[in-house]
Amino acid sequence: MVQTRTLKSTHGTICYNVEYPGATPKEVGDPILFIHGNSTSKQIFTHILETHHWQRNHPMFAIDLPGHGDSSDSFTPNETYTQPGYAKAIASWLPHMRLSKLMIVGWSLGGHIALELLATIENGELAGQDIPEIIGVMIVGSPPVGPREVPEGFTTARRDEGEEGEHVIFAATKDLSEEQIQEFAKGMTFRYEPWMTDVVRRTDGRAREIMWTAFEKMEGLNQREFVARTSNLLAVVNGASEPFIDLEFVKSLKYRNLWEGKCHELEGLGHAPFWEDWGRFEPILKRWVMDCEKKAGKDIEGIYRETGK
Q1: What is the pLDDT of residue 163?
Q2: What is the H or E stretch that residue 285 is in?
Q3: Is the separation of the CB atoms in 265 and 247 below 8 Å?
Q4: Is 3 helix (H, G, I), strand (E, B) or coil?
């Protein structure tokens, strides 16, 4: 059964869902953390945490970022509501989970945060803080951009020729009208549900404005450079009909250790393929998880044989 828990931190109260397998540690795989996108919540991953064989095989966590979902707004918004700030918030939460290894699946903003967190760990900035070893990262809808490349990676960040002023981006706007909230929520995925409007409405508007402003200024990791040098097993998965991301840009980047040697695209799916068609996304997730576990030296194939999945 999925449990909802909270943890008080210097960034605010962090709410998260957790599902622990009902088996001994030797019979289960390593944990998976799911990180959601801008103006949404951990609810986007509920169907994964509730899938029976994933429950049996892996401890799973889905966190609400500060200013989102059931987490509180940040006590220090200017420090927290940036990609490095969110990574620090998760880094402050991780030691309390007492994990030795971890795989991370980051969607949209969550993918950028996952890269920030991994880079922070690899740079040794969290040494001595009981942070688990990251054995793999999957990014979905998260183009790894470098300085001044946000318009290259995000089609929605571009201006048309002759357009006056900045293109209005809901994801960057602090105060949204009710009509804009509805439009933003319905445009996030190809499979809308009413709760998506609720989580956009709930999101601290400062989180949108501060994060996007800092992102455009590249106040954080040069993600293009990082994916070219990290040896961590990186999976890049997108919907082939992604409405916000330039897929050609994503495929043009240099990756040091790109899972299966390619960027994966799922035909007919958009910004959230794991939500829009779980049946097609799940085999990809499972293959990647198995490869991460093999790299870490775990007999994951034996675990899946035992559970029949």
Answers
A1: 39
A2: helix 278-295
A3: yes
A4: strand
Tens-digit pLDDT profile for residues 239-266 = 999 999 999 999 999 999 999 999 999 9
Tokens 């009909």, residue located: 241
267 torsion bin: left (phi>0), alpha (psi -120 to 50), beta (else): beta
Taking CB atoms within 8 Å and a gap of at least 24, the contacts of 148-156 are 148/218, 149/224, 149/249, 150/215, 150/216, 150/218, 152/246, 152/249, 153/245, 153/246, 153/249, 153/250, 154/244, 154/245, 154/246, 155/243, 155/244, 155/245, 155/246, 156/244
CA geometry: angle at 59 spanning 55 and 61, to 5°? 105
Q: How far is Cα 241 from Cα 259, in angstroms, rounded to an integer?
A: 21
Q: How many CB atoms lie within 10 A of CB 53?
A: 13
Contact (Cβ atoms closer than 8 angstroms) between residue 4 and residue 15: yes
Using CA atoms, how far apart are residues 298 and 276, in angstroms rounded to an integer? Answer: 31
* Rounded Cα–Cα distance for residues 9 and 305 (Å): 40
How do residues 117-171 score in pLDDT, each as one tens digit?
999 999 999 888 999 999 999 999 999 999 989 989 998 765 553 332 233 489 9
Q: Are 103 and 30 in contact (CB under 8 A)?
A: yes
Tell me the average pLDDT of the chain.
Answer: 91
Q: What is the pLDDT of residues 33-73, one digit of tens each?
A: 999 999 999 999 999 999 877 777 889 999 999 999 999 99
CA torsion through residues 18, 270, 40, 64, sign = positive
Quote the longest CA-to-CA distance of the chain: 63
State the pLDDT at residue 98: 93
Locate tokens 């509501």: which residue?
A: 81
